[in-house]
Amino acid sequence: MKFLFMISNVLILTLLPLLKVQGEFPILSHNCREKIENRDSQFNQEVIKDIIQSFHLESFIQNSYHVTLRDLEMAHQLYGNKEHDSYYHSLSKHFLVSSKGGPMLYLNGTSAVLVYKALTDKNVMIELMLIEEKWIEHDRKEIQGEEIPFKVLKCEKEYTKKKLEYDNKSE
Hints:
Blueprint: H1 2-15, H2 30-55, H3 58-62, E1 65-67, H4 69-78, H5 86-92, E2 99-108, E3 111-118, E4 122-130, E5 135-144, H6 154-170
Antiparallel strand pairs: 1-2, 2-3, 3-4, 4-5
């Protein structure tokens, strides 16, 4: 019994310094999350609008299905999540770019256009063709686009400040 008591005391004394009291972890409010989602949605719409206008894609996208990476991944999961799915992999690789906003794919039969705004504000358009169950890049064009400002919200700044303070306390 004495031995058990001694071991528990040693464990407590050893682990006690690791358990710092840091205060409550900051949580982003529901209201702020909604504002962020709205801001992100509006930002993405403005980015895509600029790209569509700069490449004059209005008529192409009217008769197309628009697809985000998330949509593509969900369809891949729903239709078997095959490891060797050339259709999925030949499309998804084009979404792996550094961009402002999210890339958008417009599908129209056996042709597709993927558009995004590069971090340099260049608008990029990649034309794809479906050849034997694989999407092949047919053409790529870049044109200088408009700079679309991204507004950081006040509640975001406050949350980031609180999180930094929390993280600094835990070190």
